[in-house]
């Protein structure tokens, strides 16, 4: 087997543009002795329905089957099961609770690591990583390790390996930005230039972005300035509201003590909620129900100038019809001057391994992960539209040009620009309460942001106290708090 560095050099020499059509480099590897040689093994992967990164992972499995046959001498086939984001955890948990091998490899959301690890349903990977040099990668940033691998936070215990990295990006209509009449009209109205380049958007604050969004909000032309996520489904509103809080210094809890009350329900976070709700005036009617799919629809239909969206769905956002009209850039900073900063939510998912796999299926699962992180595999994944997370692939000088969103994705993966939230075993309960409170305020059912935050903080404090993760029970004031 050729050393990783040699393979990476060979992959770069082939050129990324020819990667899919070129013979897959794995075929150069000679067969080696393997305890499963001559066997036929059936494996099953559980992934997220309708989620392109999950489908890319499973679509590439025949390449691993070919690799395993030629290198190890065994035949492997893969079955696939899926469920939407909102149902996948329950589907996995229902099976794993019976110690079933129904799903051998699972594409988990990052926040589920604690809920899957605490009952012993998934395999802790530290020993596996130590025994497999291909899994000892240098990741692009510590954010990758913190988001997709570690539970409890800061413990160094690794339970997952990144399947798909993901950050929030801003998709914008380049054809409108470059229109000379639009540029002149914007300059005349706001006395600042309309941003044109990636570098312009790096410097753009939310205050100036709202001017751009206002400028392109033209209901009479069926055009609006932007679109973002407000839906109560799963974590949709949460992930796109958090950047307003974090970027302005707000916090959501103390993970060391489990304290939420007095931290989440702060003046900073209440102001952030008001600001995020204010962004609705630049969005189409119905934006309160927007999630991932709805934003893809309005953007590809040309109804919005811009959209806050996950980089992982770039293939859905950028089509053959709009490819030359779209630019993908960093989302705006919050604040002014030297104090302005951007801290956005991490997306993406890790691979996790069923702890109840028998010896044969566990060996195949580990072989699969070793193959997944080979340089030529990660480049193939990127070429198909995926977002790798290892430093070697993202540092390749050609990486930024593989997909239109790659540069923005990588920019937001830099330390301090994106962060994940909770990996706690009670994640689903905390999220349900939070989504209820956030969307209650966004829809006007709850009158004030502070009231919604007080409700969420009290409920989450009780959840964590009951779990034994928080030393403090909710305060007496919580007895009078409701939505």
From TrEMBL:
UniProt entry keywords in alphabetical sequence: Periplasm
Name of the protein: Sugar ABC transporter substrate-binding protein
Chief place of localization: periplasm
Manganese as UniProt keyword: no
Membrane spanning stretches: none
Family label: Belongs to the bacterial solute-binding protein 1 family.
Organism for this UniProt entry: Kumtagia ephedrae
Keyword Transferase in annotation: no
